[in-house]
C-alpha cells in the first residue's frame, strides 16, 4: 500500500527546495564561462524579486566608457569619450601627446588593486583637471564634435540596440553617469540612433562661448571615484527616477558602485561589473564587490537577458 504523506508533514528543507526550484531564475546567459558570481542564489532571488515588482519599479543606472562602449575590438582599444577628442580637427599633435602621457601616468593608478579609493582620489582629480585644461587651450569648436565622433572607432557593445530600445519601450528610465565628456557621449548615442526620451545623462559637459568655442567645463568635475557625490546631489532632481526602488547598475570600475547612492529607499540593487583589463589582479575585488562580474565580455548579452527576465518574466529570444 502506498501512503501519500500530507503536505503538512513534508520536511521544511524539502519544501524550501521545491520552492527554490519553482522560483529559480532560468537565464542561460548566466552560465557563460565569462560570468562570475560570488552568490548565485542571492542573484537569482534578487532578479526574481525585481521581476515580481515589474518594470514600473525599475531603473537602470550605467557608466558609459568601457561599460556601454566596448573596451577593445580586434585586439585594439576602443576610444573613450576623451580619446575621441584626439582628432586633428579638434586638437594639436602636441596636445594629443600630452593627453596620452597623462593617460599612461594615471590610468595604472585608477586600476591599481593595491591602492585604496582614498589614495586614488587626488590622482584622479589631477588627471582630469589637467586634461580639461589642455582641451580648453585648444579652443575646440562645437560644430566639429559630430564629425570627430563619426571619424572615430568608438563602438557600443554588441546588443546595445536591444538594451536601449527595450528600456525605452518599457518606459524604464536609463541614467547614464559618466566621468567622460557628456557632449561626446550624447553624440555617440545619437549617431547610433538609440537616444530615447527615457535616457538621462550626468557627465562633464563643455561650456561654449557665443561663437561656439570651448571656454570651460560646466559645474563640478566628475571622475571615477566621486560619483557618489554626484548621485546624491543630482539624481534627486530627476523626477523620472522617483518611486523606482529596484536598480540594475552597470559599471567597469569599483567607483561605479556608488552611482545608486542617490536612489531613495532602494529595495534591490543588482550590480553588474565589466572586468575588462588586468583580470587576475582585480578579479577577487570585483567578485567581492559586484553581484555579477563579466570577464572580457564585449557584449550586452547578460544585461539584456537579465532585463528580459525582470521586465517580461521570462527569457525570450
UniProtKB/TrEMBL annotation:
Family matches, as InterPro entries: HAD-like_sf, HAD_sf, Pyrimidine_nucleotidase_eu
Gene Ontology process terms (BP): nucleotide metabolic process
Highest rank taxon of the organism: Eukaryota
Localization, UniProt: Cytoplasm
Pfam family, any one: UMPH-1
GO cellular component terms, A-Z: cytoplasm
Enzyme Commission code: 3.1.3.5
Entry keyword set: Cytoplasm, Hydrolase, Magnesium, Metal-binding, Nucleotide metabolism, Nucleotide-binding
GO molecular function per UniProt: 5'-nucleotidase activity; magnesium ion binding; nucleotide binding
Name of the top EC class for this enzyme: hydrolase
Catalysed reactions listed for this entry: CMP + H2O = cytidine + phosphate; N(7)-methyl-GMP + H2O = N(7)-methylguanosine + phosphate; a ribonucleoside 5'-phosphate + H2O = a ribonucleoside + phosphate
Function: Specifically hydrolyzes 7-methylguanosine monophosphate (m(7)GMP) to 7-methylguanosine and inorganic phosphate. The specific activity for m(7)GMP may protect cells against undesired salvage of m(7)GMP and its incorporation into nucleic acids. Also has weak activity for CMP. UMP and purine nucleotides are poor substrates.
Family from the record: Belongs to the pyrimidine 5'-nucleotidase family.
Subunit structure: Monomer.
Protein name: 5'-nucleotidase
Organism: Salarias fasciatus
